[in-house]
Amino acid sequence: MAVNVSMIRDTKWLTLEVCREYQRGTCSRSDAECKFAHPSRSCHVENGRVIACFDSLKGRCTRENCKYLHPPPHLKTQLEINGRNNLIQQKTAAAMLAQQMQFMLPGTQLQPVVSAHPRPHPHPHSPSPSPSPA
Description:
- This protein has helices spanning 20-24, 54-57, 73-104, and strands at 2-4, 15-17, 45-46, 49-51, 109-111.
- It is an alpha+beta fold.
- The longest helix is centred in the middle third of the chain and has 32 residues, at 73-104.
């Protein structure tokens, strides 16, 4: 019996707080200077937060009047950091789940998670390194 352990798509890392002063029309900072988002009218704002356009982060959004924020460079950098941290958390959680599943379902083979950047997997019958005593 094989169990597929896949990562859940999480967009929380793409969420930014909208500048309250900007919402009131009183922010004196430009988009490039303010540490909060200044979304266009086409962006969907909910509870003072806006979701950044993933395609925009990759430089490939072609939508007219995109409902997602196209962030300025300083916010884009922050989102990229958030994305990397989120990916690390997801991989850690998936590894922990896989380990727990092997204890709960002995003899079960877990299918590897396929990532956007495939890396060579160790031979499935290779002995895993034993933890060093602390």
